[in-house]
Automatic annotation (TrEMBL):
SUPFAM superfamilies (alphabetical): ARID-like (SSF46774), Clavaminate synthase-like (SSF51197), FYVE/PHD zinc finger (SSF57903)
ARID domain mapped to chain residues: 77-167
Organism field: Hucho hucho
GO cellular component, one term: chromatin
Protein name: [histone H3]-trimethyl-L-lysine(4) demethylase
Amino acid sequence: MEGEDFVPPPECPVFEPSWEEFQDPLGYIAKIRPIAEKSGICKIRPPADWQPPFAVEVDSFRFTPRIQRLNELEAETRVKLNYLDRIAKFWEIQGSSLKIPNIERRILDLFSLSKVVIEEGGFDIVSKERRWARVAQKLGYPTGKNIGSLLRSHYERIVYPFEVFHAGASLPQTKAKLYDGEEVDREYKPHSIPLRQSVQPSKMSSYGRRANRLQPDVSYVDSFVCRMCGRGDEDEKLLLCDGCDDNYHTFCLLPPLTEAPKGNWRCPKCVAEECKKPAEAFGFEQATREYTLQSFGEMADTYKADYFNMPVHMVPTELVEKEFWRLVSSIEEDVTVEYGADIHSKEFGSGFPMNNGKKNLSQEEADYARSGWNLNVMPVLEQSVLCHINADISGMKVPWLYVGMVFSAFCWHIEDHWSYSINYLHWGEPKTWYGVPSVAAERLEEVMKKLTPELFESQPDLLHQLVTIMNPNILMSHGVPVVRTNQCAGEFVITFPRAYHSGFNQGYNFAEAVNFCTADWLPAGRSCIEHYRRLRRYCVFSHEELTCKMAACPEKLDLNLAAATHREMFIIVQEERKLRKGLLERGITEAEREAFELLPDDERQCDNCKTTCFLSALACSNCPERLVCLYHTQDLCSCPTDKLYLRYRYTLDELFAMLHRLKVRAEVFDSWANRVKEALEQEEGNKIDLEVLKAEAAEKKFPDNELLQRLNTVLTDTQNCQQTSTDLLNKTQTRDWRRDSAPPEQLQALLEQGAGLPVDAPECELLKGLQEQGRWLGEVRQTLGPEGGEMTLAVLRNLMEVGCNVPQSVSVETAMAELQELLTIAERWEEKAQICLEQKHPLSTLEAIVNEAQLIPVKLPNILSLQGCLSRAKAWVTDLEEIQNGEHYPCLDDLEGLVAIGRDLPVRMEELRQLELQVASAHSWRDKASKTFLKKSSQHSLLQVREARGGKVNLSKPGVEKKAEKETEREDKENGGGRWGEDPMELDTALHSENCGKENVDSNHTTTGSTPQSVCVCGRAPRPPLLRCHLCKDWFHGGCVPFPSLLPSSSGLPTNPLCWWDWDSRFLCPRCQRSRRPRLETILALLVALQRLPVRLPEGEALQCLTERAITWQGRAKEALDTPEIQGALERLQELKQKQPHREGEEEDGKKGNCESLSLTTRTQLEELQLEGDLLEVSLDQTSTIHRVLQAALEPHRHTLRTLILVRDQETSSFSSIYCISLTPVVVKCTI
């Protein structure tokens, strides 16, 4: 069909069941079977509301697909490819590569050429009678272009040697032509799958093809002799075979060779041996990559979009279908796809919900898990035959999953045991199906064997391997009826027994399939076993075992299945009796019982036909490892007859007994008899049931029997009892239920008389009912009377429930009507109250409902609850008015408590809404203040940060300093006098750090106390680099807390690195700097927003105190900084900063220490201001100014600067390269 457009076959039947029809899956399939079976397949669209959820765990679902090469799937194309592989192999092992010629812009079909030449009589006749033009015409080439001579030339030099070689003849003496092809020809490469691999290169030396004179010395003269002519002359033209080391003259070969071939070369004998090797069976190979659903879908969608150059959802199904059949028929295009087929749902999970206890199902999922259309449920339905097989047969009873991509295909096949199959497409792009009805199954097999006999010679059971496809147009042209359909997501496709089907996927999709068998399948299943017996194919299960298992329990079968099983069992028993009779005629009389169902299948298979035995088998005592079915008793062994014995499961009598029980069950007699016995043996008889059973016996014409006679006797006695009870009831007079009922003593006496009857008559039941009426009416009178107890809804409902079970009368109906009226009124008010409790209503509405409900003489719980809610709502309003009318704004906690109480009340109050808005505004302000003050992941609360810190600030910790100094000295000694390498500048820095540490120790006033064992937030021992907090004087490690940056507060590098007073060396530990320290302007904005809130917040009051302290301090700081002394100092620092040299070499012998001198009073004032400013959680410009002045008045903090440089050097190498050059000299020179 290559080169021709694909013509779609007609559509298969499509059914759309109603909801009522959809409730019985197998019943609906049986209903449509007469129509659908004629097509082989059909499509079913469920009702629109039937949409089962997809239950596969998508994240954990992983699978390895199969690899499919499309042109190897099609039968005729595979034959051509096999032929090309063989001819390529033929030329390759002779040192030449096969190059396929191109004629009329398409490659030459060598297989078709060979076939047409053979049909025309062979090469000699075609050449002699000049039929090459006819050959060209049959191959589809145009006439008048001298194509015939081209075909002859190509055939003669490519195909003819191969055909003659396989025929075993000799080539005529013609002019030698070594086939090397033309430049325009296409070199053929065998397929890469294992069965199509080209011959492996020889393991011998690469010099093996050279003339003998180039070989090493050999001791045998025969090694230099041509095997064709027997001469050893012209040794330069001797070729050495790479396979057997024989020698041949190039001119002695057929055809002769003009020169030594390139590559490996083998002699004619080795070529014959290699080409006679049988081909391996064709099959799919597994991919090496494992996919998830997502990764496979991405691959599939990308592949389709790239192939058709358009979005996947825009590719028409007709275009995909035509392209698929073009690709599978092409020997030029080798398109490969992947198909996740036959994935076991038991291992990977079904797409349908399953009630297996592994997952808690919702109500919807549970409904779908029980649905008969769930593919996990359908095979085991009561009407299904497979439910009688105990084993979980994967693919038949347990569904298989299929993940497809575009062009992935399933080949022509029928189901195992010719069973039904059902396929459901969960989601994705459509799946295209082709079906052939069962009546044409043999015709399809004949056509495929006729068109591709080469495939069936190597694989007789090819159609059972699911690896071969054939174009439906070819089948239809040979008289095979084919139908098609596109299965969309959410649709079922049913295949019927022995209906061949195939198809392919339009794109990425997910499907699930399973087999099932109904009662009408049984004859087809038996025919399938006979078919398997002829093919010697293994069975999936024993058909006889399945039938006998159903026959053994006929009561579990419905009538239809029982009747079908009876017909099937009858044929099996008759055949078994005939076979066993044949054994007796041969003189085989020994037998033993065998429970075949307990044996593994491979231990009870016939050695000849591979059928799984169940009813019987023939065995030999001398050959215990073998057995055969009774159809192949002659093929067991050659031992004497007395050594043979029968192994049987049931005796013939037992089989006939099973057959009889089936017959009885099929005729429904057993069911009727069991119901009669049950009705007669029960303690309380039922006249209506007995009459129905009698009518059924008359309708079905059951024979007269003892059970029927007993039934008639009981019915006669019942009629007499009925008359007696009627007379007794007529004497009873009905009275007004409010006054009194019938005397209970009289009713008891009548009941005792009725108890003596053999069966309880209906009138006796009426007497019991009258007694129950009197008892119930007494309870009603007591409840509704003035002396009755508390009347509740439960009491009324209980009376109504009991009254419904009491036999009805006028009195009962009247009492029930009064109770119902009272109950309806009470329930109506109770419902109103419930609505008010669930939905908030105004206070006035609730008061009206409560007042009206108090008139009902029934205690109503919801009304009582509503009364309580009403009282609490009034009290809540009173409390709110008291709080709001107070002298001060209410606190947030009080308002939040009121909001919580008000929300729980089922009352709609406008005051509550306004209160909620106030509370929400307060929370919003608090959140904004928290974001302003608190650091990320801060351990302090907003209130803790804003409060003024009390207690004394730890100004010195000499023990820690000594510990740090000792640790520094110890590490210096361990490192050979220097921890920072051999750089003299770093060494000077280390020495200066040590001296500085000693100076700090001497400057402390308190020197007593034990040395601490740990410092810092980590609680470990002191180790350099250490830095002391500016406030608390605690020591901290360089890597545990963030240290200052050495850069000024403004961005960028310092203008002059030698102006240490501009360096930001002040360090505050996390315990001292607890907040972000916002600017004063930001805090003032928060205070303005706070003034608009009618709520008191502790955080707001703390913020006001903090603001007042900050403003007070700012005023004092401005006064101190505005003094002439400070102003002069600031101006001198600015001048010094501009005059200070920027490099070490430019520094003058000027200042080595402090740059400014302050009076003791001024310095003390500034230090106090600095300490107070550091304690404030507010950022103020005056703080940094005071710090600069104090820094300039002191000598550089060399130890602190050195530590900060080291920390920064550890954090970034770039900082070290930039600053260590400029900063380190400053520290070193300050120590001079």
